[in-house]
Each structure stands twice: as structure tokens, then as C-alpha cells.
Amino acid sequence: MGLEDYIPDEWVWESGSGSAEKAKEASEKFKEQVRKASAWIKRTQKDEGKAKKQDMLLANFLVKIILNRKFDDILDLLFKLIDKWYPSNFLLWILSLVYIDISDKIREINNMESIVFDYKIWEQIDFNDPEVDPQVKKRINFWVEDIILSSTADYSHLLTNRLIELLEKKEDDILIFVNSVFNLFLKDINVTISPSESNNILLFIIWEILKKIKSLDLEEI
Question: Which of 18, 69, 202, 204 has the highest CB neighbour count under 10 A?
């Protein structure tokens, strides 16, 4: 006997065949409500488990990032997004462009090969210059692939719905942060880009990602 077999007293205290029929109907209705509630609890607990796992992963990498002075300029922006409850898997993806260990972890979890990227030129060059090695743009494409992997493989319904809600607000904070990370990546390899072009590229990437995650079979929780 489980909770779904329980019938509240007020549904069965009357006598007679009519009362018995009502009790049976009420019992079936109650069982269905319990079934739905139990399913919701299980989904929520599973999603909470995924959320905690991703939060721990972000926390572990944050310790290393905070200790590296290279990332000082993006930390305030990152913590602002954490305070706004942007999902950890999304923030991890953004950081993976400048912290290859995160990309390696995302790909390990999804049984993908690690990215090999060892490129830098000694003279500053523009992003659109024909002399820019194609592997730079290939690395950016892998970056986008990482977020699709981290957002669509074994995804959390709670986190994904939250991310859609936040991205649809089109807040400046997220674009500023992604821009900061993107430009840090380019600065490391001595490539420059205009603010307007950087914005256009990243807006395109963000909205493509939004379309991708909105196409998932998401449950309202």
C-alpha cells in the first residue's frame, strides 16, 4: 500500500451505493493527483541534483579563475550574473573560451574529443584580416558547440527554462560579459575586433543558442 491508495476520510464517510460511487470517483481523482505530484517531485529532485552538480563544477573552476590575475576584469561581471541566477552550465560555457580546462570537462562529460588550440601571432591583426588563421574561427565554432552540448545533453528542465527566461529579457549584463570574455580570448592571441562587430557576432550566437534550447522538449516545473 502506498500514498496513492489513501482515500481522505471526508470522501468515504457517507453510506449507501451513491456514496460508494462518489468515493470511488474521488479515490481515482485523488490517485491521479498524487501520481502527478509524485512525478513532479521526482522531476524536481532530479533537476535539483543536476543543478547542484553544475554549481559544484562552476565553484571548483571559480577557485582557479579567482587565483589567476588574468581574469580580474571579468570577475565582477561574472558574479553579477551568478546573483541573477544564470545557470551554471551557461556561465561555464562562456568561460570555456578562455579557460580550456572547462571546455575539456564539458567535452569529457559528453564523450567528445578535447580541443587542441595553440595559436598566437606576434603582430596585432584584425579579426577580419585574411591573414588570421582559420583555426581562430574554428575555435569559436567549437565554443558554440560546447554550449549546445552543455545545454542540451542531459539537460535540467528547471535550469533551461530559467535560462530561456533570462535570455529573452535581452539584458545588457549578459552581452557585456560575453563580450568581455570574447575580447579577452582575442587579446590573448593578439587579434583585435571592433565593438560593433563583436556585438553583432555575439548577439547572433546568443540568439542561435536561444533558438536551439527553445526547441528542446521542456516540461513546465
Answer: 202
DSSP 8-state code for residue 86: -
Residues pairing with 191 in the sheet: 125
Please name the residue that has the C-alpha cell 536561444: 210
Segment 40-67 shows an average pLDDT of 69
Cα–Cα distance measured from residue 156 to residue 90, given in angstroms and rounded to the nearest whole number: 12
d(CA 205, CA 66): 27
Quick one: DSSP state of residue 122? S
| Alpha helices per DSSP H over 111-171 | 134-152, 157-168
* 106 Cα distance to chain centroid: 12
Whole-number Å distance between alpha carbons of 180 and 186: 10
Reported as a pLDDT band with limits 50, 70 and 90, residue 67 is confident
List the one residue out of 160, 201, 156, 151 whose CA is nearest residue 181: 201
CB burial readout 79-94, b (16+ within 10 A) else e: eebeeeebbbbbbbbb
Residues 6+ apart with CB under 8 A from 140: 97
Residue with cell 491521479: 32
